[in-house]
Every structure is written in C-alpha cells, then in structure tokens.
Amino acid sequence: MFHIKTDYSRSIAELVKTIMNVSFCYAVTIKVILASPVDGIEIPKAEKPQQRSDFRTRNIDAQKTLTMEQIQVLLEKCKVTPMHMQV
Question: Taking the model in full, what pTM does it have?
Fold first, then answer.
C-alpha cells in the first residue's frame, strides 16, 4: 500500500499512515474488524537524490574576465589609493 511511489512528500505519506492506523485500531477496539490491516506496515526510506553531473563545475565567460595586463594595471593604480584589493 505504501510501497507505490508517488509525487507526494514524505510528510503526507506519514500523515496518511497515521490516520489509517488510528482508524483501523479504533475499528479493532470496537470489534468491527478482528485485526488491523496496517499493523507492521512501514513507510519506505526516502531515496537519496542523484548528484548532478555538473557538480562543482564553473563556467567562465571570457568576455567578462580581466586579462593579466588589465589586472596589473588595476593593481598599479590601486597602490596610490586607500582601496584594499584582495588578491
């Protein structure tokens, strides 16, 4: 019953299981049924998401990247200013 994969979240599955468990336990208590059909049923563990193939890759736009000459000019100009540049 709970082994069918659906698009619902785990919290919804747990809520449905709780409601069904309480309902069937009450039915057993008032002797409508002899045994609860949901006894011993567990919700399957959540599947781990697959890692993305582009994990930790970086795409650099060459047009937006400074050249080494531009970086050297920038550093030279910053030497005479109070500007702090982390390199």
Answer: 0.45
